[in-house]
Amino acid sequence: MDITDFRMQRIEQMLILLKKNIVRETVPLEQWRFCECGYKKDNVIPDKNGPEFRDFQPNERWGTTLDSHAWFCTHVVVPEHWRGKDVRFSVITGKETGWDARNPQFIAYIDGKLTQGLDVNHTELYLEGLEEFDLDLYAYAGLEGTFSEFIAELRLVNSDCEKLYYDLRVPYESLLLEDPISKSYADILRILNKTVNHKWSDRRVNDEHTKWTFEIMRMKSPYCSDELVWKDVEVKLPDNITLINSEKECCAEGILMWHCLYTNYWGLIRVKKYVAFHVTDPDEGDYTSADKTYDYIDTFGHGCVALVSGFMSLGGPIGIVAGFANSFIG
Q1: 276-299 burial string, b = 16+ CB within 10 Å, else e?
Q2: Model-level pTM greater than 0.70?
Q3: 47-104 pLDDT, tens per residue?
Q4: Cα(251)–Cα(224) distance, integer angstroms
Q5: Which residue spans of the chain are classified as CATH 2.60.120.260?
Q6: Which CATH number fits domain 23-157: 2.60.40.1930, 3.40.640.10, 1.10.287.180, 2.60.120.260?
Q7: In the predicted model, is pLDDT for residue 226 greater than 50?
C-alpha cells in the first residue's frame, strides 16, 4: 500500500469520527396526534383534538396506501440546558436510500406558520431561538404506498464539528474524481492531510479542557449529593469564611471559582484528607482555599478537626493559610 492510500484512509477515518460527533444529544419525540387525510386545500392546521385524530403509537408504521396523506401534530418543549444552542428537529422514515420522487415527504408548520419542507435528503428542521411551540407535519406517504417508519427527535448539534466535517468531506469527494497523478490531486491531498494533522497549541488545549470541564460540571451539578462530609464537627468560622461541606457545595464552588476544586480535590475532601473554604476578602475579593487536614482529635466530647496548610508557625496544628487560627474550631 503506498503512502497516498494511507493518507486517504486517515482522512476517511477522520470523517467517520467527525460524523459520529456532530449530534451531541438527542431527545425522542413520541407523543404525536395522527390523522389520515386527503390533499389539503390551504394552510389551515386541523384541530388535533378532533374526533378524526388519534394517538400515534411508538414504532407504528404509516402510509397504508399509495399516494396517501396524513397529519402528525405535537407540542415541543426544548430542554432548558439546550436553549441558545444549535437545536434541530429530525424525522426519519426508513426510506432514505430510495428514489426521492417515490419516498415520503413532509411540510412542517411551527405555531401554525408554514416553515419548511422535509424529505429523504432534508431530514432536519432548524429551531433557532425556539423554546416551546406547536409542530404540525403534513405528510405524504409516497408513490409506493408501503408502510413507512416515523422516527422523530430533537437534536443538539455541535455546529463546529459539522462545519469541519463538510469542509473536509467536499474536497475529499472531489479527490475521488481527480487523476491521482495530477497537480490538483496532490495539492488537495496535501491540504487535507495538513488539516487532519492539525495540532492545537497548549493554550488552546487548556482553554478547551476548561470549557468542557465546566460544561460537564454544570450537567452533573443537579445530581450531586448534599450529604455532609463533617457531620459531627462544630466549626466556628469568621463571617467571611464558609466551609464547603458536601459534594453539591464543592461542585457549585468549582463552577463559580475553580473547577479543579471538584475535579481534583473532591475525592480527597470526601475522605477528609482535605478541607475547602470559600473566603470573601474585602481587599482580594472572593477566592477558594483547599488545605490538607492535619489532625483529628477529640475535644469537648465530640470530633474536632484541626487544619493546616503549611504555615505551621501561625497556629501549630490548628491553623490555615490566611492565618486564621484557633477560632475555626468549636
Answers
A1: bbbbeeeeeeeebbbbebbeeeee
A2: no
A3: 988 899 999 998 888 887 777 899 999 999 999 999 999 999 999 887 766 555 567 8
A4: 8
A5: 23-157
A6: 2.60.120.260
A7: yes
